[in-house]
Amino acid sequence: MKALTISSIDHANLTAQQRAVCRATMFTVHAPRRLRLQAGIRNSDLTQLLKTHNALTAVVVTAYNPAGQKLPTTKNKARHAALAAAIKRLKLAALPAEREGCNDASDEAYLVLNISGAQAEDLLTEFDQHALLWCNQSSAPELMLHPLMRLQGR
């Protein structure tokens, strides 16, 4: 089993602009009530949601705009449907969510419950995303970066 690798954006091979975008990104989970999440900021409502769903871990992941490249809405919608199918194949529960960049429109996403680090990394790779938001019951959400964005040897 692969070990979970969460890489701080401060130690990743990112430009200053990419770091700023990462820090400004907000995630909204559409649970019974909306949860606003951000990397590095603990959220007691998220902890309660995870406990309610008996989930030790979760990620917020999108399939929109792979590698930061803007795609037409129709292609993004098709990618979102493919992400839903991938989550279903993994037999994991998911709640609707969205990712909101600093100047971008919102991207449809999912909060995927009880996902392993290896499964999360596989989704990052399969859908060519720079990062996803890794969550658990005991700490603040953190960004999990795509393996190619991590520094060599880290």
Explain this structure.
Helix content is 29%, strand content 25%. The chain has helices spanning 16-24, 44-52, 73-89, 117-126, and strands spanning 26-30, 34-37, 57-62, 94-100, 107-113, 131-136, 142-145. It is globular. It has a seven-stranded antiparallel sheet with strand order 2-1-4-5-3-6-7, with helices on both faces. A hairpin with a 3-residue loop joins strand 1 (26-30) and strand 2. The longest helix has 17 residues, at 73-89. The protein starts with 15 loop residues before the first helix and ends in a 9-residue tail after the last strand. By secondary structure, it is of the alpha+beta class.
Entry summary:
It is built from 4 helices and 7 strands, in the order αββαβαββαββ.
Shape: globular
Terminal CA distance? 18 Å
Percentage of residues in DSSP E strands: 25-35%
Radius of gyration: 14 Å
User: Structural class of the secondary elements?
Assistant: alpha+beta
Number of strands: 7
The number of distinct helices, counting runs of at least 4 residues, comes to 4
Largest sheet: 7 strands, antiparallel
